[in-house]
Amino acid sequence: PMPTAPYMYLDGSIVPYADAKVHAFSGVVKYGCGVFEGLRAYRSASGNLLLFRLAEHIDRLRFGMKAMRYERILPHDEIEEAVVSMLRANDLREDTHVRVIAYLGGDDPLHQTGPVGLIAGALPRPSRGVGGGLHATVSSWRRIADSALPPRVKCTGNYVNNRTAEIEAVQDGYDAVLMMTADGKLAEGSGACLVLVRDGRLVTPDVGSDILEGITRDTILRLGADITDRPVAERRVDRTELFAAEEAFLCGSGQEVTPILSVDRLPVGSGEPGPVTLALQERYFAIVRGEIPEYAAWLTPVWED
Ligand code: PMP
User: Fold this and answer.
1) What is the CATH number of the domain that holds 63?
2) Is 154 a residue of the active site?
3) Which ipTM value was assigned to this complex?
4) What is the DSSP code string of 180-200?
5) How far apart, in whole angstroms, are the C-alpha atoms of residue 233 and residue 186?
6) Of the N and C termini of the chain, which has fewer Cβ atoms inside 10 Å?
7) Residues 147 and 282 in one domain
8) Per the domain annotation, does 129 fall within a domain?
9) Are 200 and 97 found together in one domain?
């Protein structure tokens, strides 16, 4: 099993992992309407721990609370404090994944909009690093649509869709799954956004393609134009473009930047990690570890230097 840090944050307190519990009749259990974030913190050269784009993750969490009509939207500072205090309580100084969940708690089975609670915990694990690669499949399951379950809201119940697609793909022998919109255009992976390289240019499904508006996607859009010297294309993307592309990769806070080597057993480009993806990986990992001063505003240090 994946190791978890010994302490979690729960509704204002630091508690042992085993005590981070919610009531069986809470709204989050019954309706699956928690909202959550997954982000990473990286060890810097000086030994500090740097949270990557924490402010943007908190903004998205708060947007989720609004969209899910929570009776109270937790203040930005309270969420930041929860994450930082939890990491400090665990004395964490190595690379770690961080999970934050805002939820409908209490024990009243009829209360649909509150009380609003907050959970944070850490799953220490190393970065995937440069290189690597995934063998992917296009799912038989379609991505949920904004007209029913909005994919841009990182709501726990939405992830029934991703889980169904991912489990099927893994049981069929693939490392990763790509999902299409209801009208058959490419959307995204089960926990990451999709980017292709076509004619030396980055191409990614637009925000109308039933995707989560990924923070890593945004990072890549900013870096991509520098690396390729061409503007990034955000548009509808066809399934067969996976086979026309020179390169493809997934990007997400947990996924980081990971090459896709094949789709449905057909190689993407050469079938090896390509030069654009490798250059983006190098740059991404340098930024998250605080090696490029230009991007310091994206980093929140956990420890006082
Ligand atoms: N799509 C989905 C469905 C996801 O769950 C995630 C992970 N949050 C992403 C994309 C990537 O988003 P981000 O870069 O903000 O982590």
Assistant:
1) 3.30.470.10
2) yes
3) 0.99
4) E-TTS-EEEESSSEEEEEETT
5) 14
6) N
7) yes
8) no
9) no
Answer whether 65 contacts ligand 1 (Cβ < 6 A).
no
Number of domains in the chain: 2
Q: Where among 124, 159, 191 does a domain terminate?
A: 124
Say whether 141 sits in a helix, a strand or coil: strand
Q: So what's the pLDDT on residue 1?
A: 65
Sequence-ordered list of residues with C-beta below 8 angstroms from that of 280, at least 6 positions apart, any chain: 220, 223, 224, 227, 249, 257
Instruction: Give tens-digit pLDDT for 196-235.
Output: 999 999 999 999 999 999 999 999 999 998 899 999 999 9
Distance 33 CA to ligand 1 centre (A): 17
Residue-wise pLDDT for 87-119, tens only, equals: 999 999 999 999 999 999 999 989 999 999 999
* Residue 277 CB–ligand 1 contact under 6 Å: no
Q: Is 108 helix (H, G, I), strand (E, B) or coil?
A: coil
Which of helix, strand or coil describes residue 172?
A: coil
State in Å: Cα 196 to ligand 1 middle.
Answer: 16
Ligand 1 centre distance from Cα of residue 3 (Å) = 22
In a domain, 2, yes or no: no
pLDDT for the residue numbered 137: 99
Q: Which of 58, 188, 212, 213 to mutate to test the pocket of ligand 1 (most atoms within 8 A of CB)?
A: 212
162 CA closest ligand 1 atom index: 3
Structural domain of 36: 7-124
Residue ID of nearest Cα to ligand 1 atom 2: 191
Q: What is the pLDDT of residues 163-209, one digit of tens each?
A: 999 999 999 999 999 999 999 999 999 999 999 999 999 999 999 99
The answer on pLDDT for 279 being more than 70 is: yes
- Based on the fold, state whether residues 187 and 72 are members of the same structural domain: no
236 vs 233: CA distance, rounded Å? 9
Atom of ligand 1 nearest to the CA of 57: 15
Q: What is the mean pLDDT of the chain?
A: 97
